[in-house]
Amino acid sequence: MPYFLIIIGFVLLVLLVMLFRTLQVSGNTPMSSTTDLLTVDSKKTAEHLAEAIRFKTISKLSMDETDFKPFKNYHQWLEKTYPKLHAVLKKESVNQHSLLYYWKGTNAGLKPVLFAGHLDVVPVEEVTLSAWHADPFKGEIKQGFIWGRGALDMKNHTIGMFDAVETLAASGFQPKRDIYFALGQDEEISGKDGAKSIAALLKKRGIQLAAVLDEGGMISHGLVPGVETPVALIGVGEKEYVTVNLTTKGTPGHSSNPPRQTAIGVLARAIALLDDNPFEARPELAIETLKRIAYLFPFSTRFVLANTWLLKPALVKQLEKRVQTNALIRTTHAATVIKGGIKDNILPAEACAKINFRLLPGDSQETVLQHIRKVVDDPRVEAAIDVADAWGPSKVSTINTPAYKTLELVIRQVFGDIPAAPYLLMFATDARHYQEVSEQLYHFSPLSMETEDMGRMHGIDERISVDALAGMVKFYARLLKVWGEAEF
Ligand SMILES: [Zn+2]
């Protein structure tokens, strides 16, 4: 037989196998059983959030600048608004302004779970005020939305949880396992006095948690390119945050007889080299996410996803095209600050830049420095970790746990039979502080978000719909029951 026929036959066979694999792709969504969900007074819940927004619990860059009066007032308001909760749960203050609530379970043999949140919000920039369609701290309810700073990040979570607990506590419900609610005061600036201190306190008391739920994932509407239907994205890890200071030195002098490169030139070359030589792509975790929802994609993408054994390079090329998906598959870097020189005719004595890295699990401060040394390869460039701006690393939680599986189940019970997939969070949250006391940290904000809504967080016109907020109460009430009673 001529060779070319053998080759054609082989290619056809491979194509057939690939096609077969593509047709095998199917949904992994078991139908949830119907269940009784909490009836929520959505008007009352909306008013609760509107009132909460009025407390200007703003995190300023340094602790000394923060005005803690609104925090104190917010604490008192919570106590007044949720009397049943405060009668049944034990409350303690941590570092005065963070709160830890403890709901005692009936079975001390079960490991507790913790619901994390934060009391603080980011400031509203003065120059953006005129672009807002509501006063960010007035707590306005209009057009079916509650408007203001913290409506999405994350006073809505606190209200969702507390409205749920208030109703459950009033009905006489008591969980089997202990449940904690931890509300930090400074998530937006580090979490040091809030979540970090709370985690340290729990550790000191010898408490190990079965699972932690914090903000992060959501029901995505159009956030996954090519998928039209809603998908519940559950965060199972965070990218580590590392800033590196690059410094170059020069001899100060007159710029009329300069060396071939000044300190600024050397630094600029180093940054250009880093930009031209990004970290290698490691798409495994992203592929796992995409494979779980592969059946939702058009045929062409499904074909690629079903055959990553052969088409991984093509998939990586595709993912690299968008900054959002590129960040899912590699450790990224961005030069964010540069300084050097004082006058146009003086040679600079020093130039420095900050390069912000976001690390995929598996990379570390050490691999970042190695990468810089290898790529820049210039002894004149000093690279040092900025210890004030380096956190992590964050472990990736496993999804093969009863806590994860029941979380998925509750999402479907409350929001309909939507597909769910684990993914890696691009930003940092308080949850990383709880790694010491829990192996399983999950991120899920129980509401639908569109791309536009993502920009509202920390941005202009932050708001949540009255219905979405009621959905959050239903979700927390259901999860509190399921996690509260499940024997894991
Ligand atoms: Zn937040």
- CA-CA gap between termini: 62 Å
Could you tell me the CATH topology label of the largest domain: Aminopeptidase
Overall shape: it is: globular
Q: What class would the helix/strand composition place it in?
A: alpha/beta
Ligands and ions found:
zinc ion
Task: Please list the strands of the largest sheet in the order they lie side by side.
Answer: 1-2-6-3-7-15
Please give the largest β-sheet. Answer: 6 strands, mixed
- The helix tally amounts to 15
Rg computed from alpha carbons, rounded to a whole number of angstroms: 26 Å
Total tally of structural domains:
2
Kindly state the number of beta strands: 17
Q: What is the H level of CATH, i.e. the homologous superfamily of the largest domain? A: Zn peptidases
Q: Low-confidence runs (pLDDT<50, min 5 residues)?
A: none
In terms of DSSP E residues, the strand content is 15-25%
CATH class of the largest domain: Alpha Beta
Query: What is the name of the CATH architecture of the largest domain?
Result: 3-Layer(aba) Sandwich
In which range does the helix fraction lie?
A: 25-40%
Average of pLDDT:
93
SSE topology:
Blueprint: H1 3-24, H2 42-53, H3 69-81, H4 83-88, E1 90-94, E2 98-103, E3 113-118, E4 140-142, E5 145-147, H5 155-170, E6 179-184, H6 192-204, E7 211-214, E8 218-221, E9 231-238, E10 240-249, H7 263-276, H8 284-292, H9 299-306, H10 308-320, H11 323-329, E11 332-340, E12 350-359, H12 365-376, E13 381-391, H13 402-415, E14 420-425, E15 441-443, E16 448-450, H14 451-456, E17 463-465, H15 466-485
Parallel strand pairs: 3-6, 3-7, 7-15, 8-16, 9-14
Antiparallel strand pairs: 1-2, 2-6, 4-5, 5-17, 8-9, 10-12, 10-13, 11-12
Helix pairs in contact: 1-9, 2-5, 2-15, 5-15, 13-15
Bound molecules: zinc ion.
Zinc ion binds near residues 153 and 154.
